[in-house]
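Dear colleague,

Thank you for sharing your sequence with our group. We've completed the structure prediction you requested, and as agreed, I am returning the results in plain text so they can be pasted directly into your records. Please verify that the sequence below matches your submission; if there's any discrepancy, let me know and we will rerun it promptly.
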Amino acid sequence: FIASILMMEFAMRPRTTATSAVSIATSDGPVSLQLDNLVDDFKTTPFERRFNPYDFNGGTIVSIAGADFAVCGGCTRISTGYEIISRNQSKLFPLTGQTVLSAAGCLSDIITLRRMLDARLTQYEHSHAVEMSGKAVSQLLSTTLYHRRFFPYYAFCMVTSLDEEGKGAVYGYDAVGSFKRDDYGCMGSGQNYVMPILDNLVGHKNRLDEKKPLSLEEVISIIKDVFVIVAERDIYTGDSVELKIITKDGITTEIFNLKKD
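Please find the predicted structure tokens below.
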């Protein structure tokens, strides 16, 4: 009984708080900064600590398949936020003599993915004494991405190659390995600007005139024009475009300059 009375008396007492102030010199004279209960507030206020392992480094990649060729292009600008990290970083990675991986997203994840694929392709070549076909590479990339589905590679990829009949093939992927073959595709920060143009010029969608096959020169011209248009609207696309032209004779490279701002 006595203990309960003492506890009630203690609870009814007015609490005193320590008050302190710090004087800060300014151009208008000293200013007093109150520090009442600063330590208690710091202890009781929740703070959030956040870590993001991914970074979107921008850029745009485009691929178009033809009757006996395939062309892929990618800008060479690497950015983070409003800062340009590099103006000459390739987004196109030859995997075999007739297969090219193009990827946009987080550069560190793309490099790691490319190294993983190179190791698997080297093992395959040592075991079978022959390069992996484009179709097999497309399936290998799918399983590699799906294997990391719970902590995905932040890479949006396309595989451009020639199939067993010598026809151009473009395989588009999401981050966890779902893919399909198509005649054209694009990924990256300028995707929304590129796809309507490709749907009209290459896919021939919503058009009444006769669809004619595109020559290699026409495909290269379309890709260059597309990047010029995107560079005017997308701040993450610019500097220059690297083109990889795949034919039965191998892969050739061409560089096309864009605006630098």
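Summary note from our side: The mean pLDDT is 88.

Kind regards,
the structure core
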